[in-house]
């Protein structure tokens, strides 16, 4: 038994120009927002890279700071060995030794 083919008549409707414009505006809105979301994603990547670079530089500077502190300790020890304990006025370069306590 052969099946009968059903013929469906379509009644085409045409959207108005305003409706077509609304649909186009909606599509454009989606495309614009997707592009902006992409730009934000790229900006986040760039900011992340900048943060990584800043953190690396901070770590380097912390290491360098510790090295300067060690230089200071070494210099103080060397000067104490040479001149004994005392006070140095860095502005004038004048060193004033502290009196050693008298031993009984």
Give me a quick take on this structure:
This protein has 104 residues and is mainly alpha-helical.
Could you characterize the architecture of this molecule?
By secondary structure, the protein is mainly α. The chain has a domain at 18-83. The chain has 1 helix and 2 strands. It has one helix at 17-83, and strands at 86-89, 94-97. The protein is rod-shaped. The N and C termini lie far apart (131 Å). The model has no long low-confidence stretch (mean pLDDT 90).
Please describe the topology of this protein.
Blueprint: H1 17-83, E1 86-89, E2 94-97
Antiparallel strand pairs: 1-2
Number of helices: 1
The side-by-side strand order for the widest beta sheet comes to: 1-2
Give the low-pLDDT segments: none
What structural class do helix, strand and pairing data support?
Answer: mainly alpha
Portion of residues within helices: 55-70%
Q: Tell me the series of helices and strands, N- to C-terminal.
A: HEE
Q: State the separation between the terminal residues, measured CA to CA.
A: 131 Å
Based on CA atoms alone, the radius of gyration comes out at: 40 Å
Strand residues, percent: 5-15%
Mean pLDDT over the full residue set: 90
Main beta sheet, described? 2 strands, antiparallel
Number of beta strands: 2
Shape: rod-shaped
Attribute tags:
104 residues; mainly alpha; two-stranded antiparallel sheet; 2 strands
